[in-house]
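CORE FACILITY INTAKE
Project code: CF-77B
Contact: R.S. (postdoc)
Sample description: multi-component assembly, two entities in total
Requested service: structural model of the whole complex
Turnaround: standard
Below are the sequence entries exactly as provided by the requester. Do not edit them.
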Amino acid sequence: MTLSAPARWALRAVMALGLTFIYVPLLLVLINSFNGDRTFAWPPHDLTTRWWSAAWANEGAREALLTSIRAGLGATAIALVLGTMIAFAVQRFAFFGRDTISLLVLLPIALPGIVTGIALDSAWRSVMGDLGIGKGMFSIIVGHATFCVVTVYNNVLARLRRTGTNLEEASADLGASGFQTFRYVTFPLIRSALLAGGLLAFALSFDEIIVTTFTAGPGVTTLPIWIFNNLFRPNQAPVVNVVAAVLIVLSVIPVWLAQRIAGPQAGAGRT
Amino acid sequence: MASLGSYLHRHPRLRLAGLLSAPLLWLVVAYLGALAVLLVSAFWTVNGFTGEVVRQFSLGNFRTLLAEEVYRNVALRSVGVAAAVTVICVVVAVPMAFFMAKVAPAGSRHWLVIAILTPLWASYLVKAYAWRILLANDGPMDTLFGGPGYGLPATVLVLAYLWLPYMILPVYAGLERLPDSLLEASADLGARAGRTFRSVVLPTLVPSVLAGSIFTFSLSLGDYITVQIVGGKTQLIGNLVYANIGAANNLPFAAAIACVPVLIMVIYLLAVRRSGALEEL
């Protein structure tokens, strides 16, 4: 539509303000991690890198980071398998309740995290507890995988809708077995969708705190839980600042990867 | 291997069963099962002396929930916060998404999307923490604007900050699919910008906004972490649930409170599904 010049300028201003609103808090954390003053007075008077070396030496933070990565990898692996299976079932078959499935997959992420958290917690206590399996890394992975399935499912489903079944039929006509068709035709077609979905799943898991609070056993601390536990301790503030700054810097990596994998739309929907 | 493959090829129902069994076992039996147990336990009570769960049907929890003013207020406040966050996100996101999709030069759109996308990957806690620093006494916001400090307005502000990209992205995606030629046709037929917006842009906008609102509304409704970080003494539904699991050790009552956001979200999702917004996710 033909917008007047003032309207264009107004929109441009809103955009600029919006981006400022989004980025100023993140920049502040970055600068604060170099703030030399122990009380983090603002604006900072002198800059130092000693908090960075202190954070690097912090055993708890490093341990928590490793735990988060392990949990993320486990949850992503399960989400990749389950999400792909559901996407194939929904896209390639017609069956009773098909429309309900997309709602079901979305449910763990659409419901408030605390609900998913206590539901899984009480189920784990009453079922797995009786089997003698306590809460720990395994229960974290189970909890995370439950809400990560949707990212893989959505990405693979969109890809399957686009590609259709012609190539697979051609492969079968040419005498390939079901396994060969999957290995040489289907899998390469959905590979980048799997990568994009897996990346989102990992990011969701890596960042999750609410469900984790309820599914983590004693002694298992993921990075978000570590940050939250140390957030209100003034003497830990310098290390928390650095960990926060590192996480902001690292957030560029998945965006860059997603761009390389599948173009700008790859990471557009987080679910 | 080959014979199994051809057997499966001739029996599509079997293939379907193979594909669906594991995921459904997980999502229906484990997850929906857990939700069902939660729902049932909301009708149980806790023995005041022993602290043990009494597995007997009772409406006591819900009666307390409805009768006591504290709980009503917290529930209403939570819905109010979720609604306010959603409205703020819509008001900020729509002009931004419109600029990105229709006004910005085509070459820069890609970069604007990346600029909106990148903070999504930065940790939730880190962003809440950033606002804790910003809003602190004598912090940057206090020095510049003299407030608002920690409390309910801060909670709404920070939640809106956290979920803003979840609103911008679906709205942008929806607007991008709206062909420019439609806007031109509307202008050619004599419509001014306002009329075009109402009659052409708005109908495409509604499903996208609803899709985004699922995130902004639901994520705000269940949040109890941000409230603890910047909310001061503010309590939302999530805090009540958390307190009843932890300190009070009253899981049935926590389950009863948790039913409130679930009920609200299920109604919301069903209403939104009718509008076709779930396809926009």
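Facility notes:
- Residues 60-262 of chain A form a domain with the MetI-like fold fold (CATH 1.10.3720.10).
- Residues 72 and 125 of chain A are 23 Å apart (CA to CA).
Invoice: internal transfer
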